[in-house]
């Protein structure tokens, strides 16, 4: 728990550091209860802020949960009156402009359940320092604009044969008492958040990569012995990412060694520490038998993401944490493009847009709404958000769209060259993009400072006499907490026009069939000439801006776009709109107490999609997936959870029954039983096959359940096995479901990752994931409340992915979540603050639910002293 509970930090208060640290030499004498940390720093007054003949200001060192043993300056023990321990750190009075400071502290990794700083995971030491974890290791100016050359010496008993840190290993010896002593040096200056240390009894796989300039880089992936067979996919992904960054961005790796370590206890996905990336094992380890296609693709993306940070994050880093999106938004954009190049571009885009629409838009509309570059925070860990990451990536994507591929590359080249070795701001990024291209992004900058999701309303007009077609677009952004008045944004709207045969129309005299409209005003009209008949517009192609688009498409027009749009993303989007329209209509019927009518147009549309064998099967699978309950909830105020659940089930079952023969035909055709590969085409086929299987089982025919049972028992790969099991659990007779679940557990209980899948299958099940079952899972021997992956699988699986059970009318789901959040806050504040998210949306629900959710939130608030993480989220949500 931190002492800084209610303190708000503002971007406008930023001040450059008083002192710089040229060198940082750390020595760790590892012990679970009493690790001794000796830090020797070469400190000097920051010339950028020094004035002539000044009295030197005190040196502030951040520190939290540390036991201070001694402080010396230039080799002399500092008397106690020269320093003062305060909440959050140490203030030292300074009498010279440059000096060597030595600080000794003692820490207890064993007792560290926050998974920030130095901690133990399955007996192995590891670190997580971003954003402010280094201050839990030693007293230090723990801010990203203080960059230093680090050397790290680790001393540990021989039972920890692998001792790792950043950079190159420069020394390794055995001490007189038989312990190991290893020293690492990182030649690149870095902020403390990129520091890492690992110590354990680990195995590794090794490979190498030859860079574009011909250097050989050693690649090592470390893991516990039992997982050594699960490293191949991550290693292959790493090599692809290294090559891609050379080819697409001209970025070469800079050290002679690149290491990845897998750890089981980790708050996030992974961390880009210089030369020593540390990964949540779920985001790096995979084998066909144990990991699903989704996991394979996630691993490829995250390995690339962390690798790309070596340039966008490490070589060029952030000045302060308000600039987090500088590295995260840019790096997410980079990894998304990488994944698009490695797999199906359209499908990757669809997945990212679904995440934005369901979760980022909800964040924008909720109490924690903030701009891509926040103005203030209480706890920076709470700002590792979908807004900073995903919307931040959309902002970079829009720059790419506005400038074009080549100009964007000129901008990124200039950015890396100009700021190499520096800690900079989002503004510096935009300026580099402008300077390299003499572009004007003045108005565009508002995307960084203005929160909320813009709404675009589009109308059109056609004059047959003049052959003139015009699109009028109005934009407005709803108010968000602390920001009532919004200014018009510079929005790239990519469009095309279709004639009545579905062919693209030339948009101007150059004959181009697609263009980017620059919407800069609150209302603007764009005119096209020489249009022979009324066209159908295809708007916001590829989701060219993170906005809500409204245009009054009829069902027939949507079906037409589904068939003819040359933009595959928009074909999918037309299908989604058709589904959304149908589900909204059903909701009206439900709320009016009327009988629900079969969604005929949607069924027709789906039938056409299923019949089109020329479409990428992965795209078909996406088109046939109904919008999630979360996404439906996002559509409206006054959310009626029961209505959403009822109409989704109704529509799904109606589609399943009406198209059963088609689903079966495609299932059969795709059930090819090839040996597993994670290649995009194979993943595509499995995704459509399993979509068909789910609909078949929903249709309720006993033969379909037999198909699922056969697929489950064949157990050829985890994608097919888990999909079959999910269908059996959801649609099969209850007793049998129990047996299948039990059989699955018996087979896989040794594999912690598969057990997480098994937990998630149950907690997220509309039918099986009852509160009672979730509570039972929490006392299962494989559950570990100190392991975030387990908590996410069971508790978040229920609260965030099980709309049906979580929103049960008696409010028991909300109360359960409140209990878990209160308990977890004592162990791991970051996880507690994330888990509370569903409760923060109380204002969006109708009165009954709203009152229940708010009461649960209030109970958390009243439960005692909260961590700063949880306090910030809860107080802002109640306020
Ligand atoms: N920089 C890491 C990543 O790419 C995330 C670190 C998150 N740390 C935290 N305390 N929230 O993407
Ligand atoms: Zn990142």
Automatic annotation (TrEMBL):
Its EC number is 3.4.11.2. Its cofactor is Zn(2+). PANTHER family: PUROMYCIN-SENSITIVE AMINOPEPTIDASE. It is an enzyme of class 3 (hydrolase). It catalyses: Release of an N-terminal amino acid, Xaa-|-Yaa- from a peptide, amide or arylamide. Xaa is preferably Ala, but may be most amino acids including Pro (slow action). When a terminal hydrophobic residue is followed by a prolyl residue, the two may be released as an intact Xaa-Pro dipeptide. It holds the Pfam family DUF3458_C. GO terms for molecular function: aminopeptidase activity. InterPro entries: Aminopeptidase_N-like_N, Aminopeptidase_N-like_N_sf, PepN_Ig-like_sf, Peptidase_M1, Peptidase_M1_dom, Peptidase_M1_pepN, Peptidase_M1_pepN_C, Peptidase_M1_pepN_C_sf. Coiled coil: none annotated. Belongs to the peptidase M1 family. This is Aminopeptidase N. Gene3D superfamilies: 2.60.40.1840, 3.30.2010.30, Neutral Protease Domain 2, Peptidase M1, alanyl aminopeptidase, C-terminal domain, tricorn interacting facor f3 domain. Residues 452-551 form the Peptidase M1 alanyl aminopeptidase Ig-like fold domain. Residues 234-447 form the Peptidase M1 membrane alanine aminopeptidase domain. It comes from the Bacteria. Residues 59-194 form the Aminopeptidase N-like N-terminal domain. Residues 556-878 form the Peptidase M1 alanyl aminopeptidase C-terminal domain. Keywords: Aminopeptidase, Hydrolase, Metal-binding, Metalloprotease, Protease, Zinc.
């Amino acid at each position: 728990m931190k002492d800084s509970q209610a303190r708000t930090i503002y971007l406008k208060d930023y001040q450059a550091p008083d002192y710089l640290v040229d060198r940082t030499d750390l020595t760790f004498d590892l012990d679970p209860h009493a690790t001794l940390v000796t830090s020797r720093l070469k400190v000097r007054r920051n010339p950028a802020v020094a004035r002539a003949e000044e009295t030197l200001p005190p040196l502030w060192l951040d520190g939290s949960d540390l036991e201070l043993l001694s402080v010396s300056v230039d080799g002399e023990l500092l008397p106690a009156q020269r320093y003062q321990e305060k909440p959050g750190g140490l203030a030292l009075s300074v009498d010279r402009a440059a000096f060597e400071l030595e600080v000794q502290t003692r820490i207890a990794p064993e007792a560290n359940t926050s998974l920030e700083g130095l901690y133990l995971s399955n007996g192995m030491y590891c670190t997580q320092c971003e954003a402010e974890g280094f201050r839990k290791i030693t007293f230090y100016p723990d801010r990203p604009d203080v960059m230093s050359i680090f050397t790290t010496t680790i001393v540990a008993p021989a039972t920890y044969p692998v001792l790792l840190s950043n950079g190159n290993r420069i020394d390794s010896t055995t001490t007189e008492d038989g312990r190991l002593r290893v020293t690492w040096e990182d030649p690149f200056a870095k902020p403390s958040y990129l520091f890492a240390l690992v110590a354990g009894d680990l195995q590794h796989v090794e490979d190498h990569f030859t860079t574009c300039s011909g250097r050989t880089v050693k690649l090592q992936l470390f893991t516990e012995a039992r997982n050594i067979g699960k490293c191949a996919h991550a290693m292959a992904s790493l090599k692809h990412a290294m090559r891609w960054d050379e080819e697409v961005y001209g970025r070469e790796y800079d050290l002679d060694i690149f290491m990845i370590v897998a750890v089981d206890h980790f708050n996030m996905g992974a961390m880009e520490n210089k030369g020593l990336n540390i990964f949540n094992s779920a985001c790096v380890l995979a084998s066909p038998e144990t990991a699903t296609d989704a996991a394979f693709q996630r691993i490829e993306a995250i390995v690339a993401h962390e690798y790309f940070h070596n340039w966008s994050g490490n070589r060029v880093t952030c000045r302060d944490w308000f600039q987090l999106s500088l590295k995260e938004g840019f790096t997410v954009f980079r990894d998304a493009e990488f994944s698009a190049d490695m797999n199906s571009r359209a499908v990757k885009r669809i997945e990212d847009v679904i995440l934005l629409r369901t979760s980022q838009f909800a964040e924008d509309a909720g109490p924690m709404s903030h701009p891509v570059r926040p103005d203030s925070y209480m706890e920076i860990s709470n700002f590792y958000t979908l807004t900073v990451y995903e919307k931040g990536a959309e902002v970079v994507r829009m720059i790419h769209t506005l400038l074009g591929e080549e100009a964007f590359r000129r901008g990124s080249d200039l950015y890396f060259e100009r700021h190499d070795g520096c800690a900079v701001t989002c503004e510096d990024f935009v300026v580099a993009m402008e300077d390299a291209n003499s572009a004007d992004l003045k108005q565009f900058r508002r995307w960084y400072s203005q929160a909320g999701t813009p709404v675009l309303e589009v109308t059109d007009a056609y004059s047959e006499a003049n052959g003139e077609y015009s699109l009028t677009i109005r934009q407005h952004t709803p108010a968000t907490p602390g920001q009532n008045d919004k200014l018009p944004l510079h929005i790239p709207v990519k469009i095309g026009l279709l004639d009545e045969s579905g062919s693209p129309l030339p948009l101007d005299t150059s004959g181009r069939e697609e263009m980017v409209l620059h919407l800069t005003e609150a209302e603007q009209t764009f005119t096209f000439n020489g249009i022979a008949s009324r066209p159908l517009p295809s708007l916001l192609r590829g989701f060219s801006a993170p906005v809500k688009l409204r245009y009054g498409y009829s069902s027939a027009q949507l079906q037409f776009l589904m068939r003819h749009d040359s933009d595959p993303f928009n074909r999918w989007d037309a299908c989604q709109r058709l589904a959304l329209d149908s589900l909204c209509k059903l909701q009206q019927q439900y709320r009016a107490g009327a009988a629900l009518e079969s969604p005929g147009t949607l069924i027709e549309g789906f039938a056409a999609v299923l019949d089109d064998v020329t479409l990428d099967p992965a795209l078909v699978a996406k088109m046939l997936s109904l919008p999630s309950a979360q996404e439906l909830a996002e559509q409206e105020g006054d959310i009626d959870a029961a209505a959403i659940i009822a109409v989704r089930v109704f529509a799904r079952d109606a589609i399943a029954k009406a198209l059963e023969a088609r689903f079966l035909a495609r299932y059969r055709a795709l059930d090819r039983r090839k040996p597993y590969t994670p290649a995009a085409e194979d993943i595509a086929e499995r995704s459509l096959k399993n979509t068909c299987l789910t609909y078949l089982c929903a249709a309720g025919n006993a033969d379909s359940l037999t198909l699922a049972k056969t697929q489950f028992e064949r157990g050829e790969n985890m994608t097919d096995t888990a999909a079959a099991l999910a269908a059996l659990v959801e649609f099969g007779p209850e007793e049998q479901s129990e047996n299948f679940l039990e059989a699955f557990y018996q087979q896989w209980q040794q594999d912690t990752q598969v057990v997480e899948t098994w937990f998630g299958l149950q907690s997220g099940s509309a039918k099986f994931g009852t509160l009672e079952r979730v509570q039972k899972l929490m006392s299962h021997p494989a559950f570990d409340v100190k392991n975030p992956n387990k908590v996410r699988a069971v508790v978040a699986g229920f609260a965030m992915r099980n709309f049906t059970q979580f929103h049960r009318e008696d409010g028991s789901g909300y109360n359960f979540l409140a209990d878990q959040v209160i308990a977890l806050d004592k162990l791991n504040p970051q996880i507690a603050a994330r888990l509370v998210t569903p409760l923060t949306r109380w204002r969006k629900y109708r009165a009954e639910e709203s009152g229940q959710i708010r009461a649960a939130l209030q109970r958390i608030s009243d439960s005692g002293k909260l961590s700063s993480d949880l306090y910030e989220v809860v107080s802002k949500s109640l306020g």
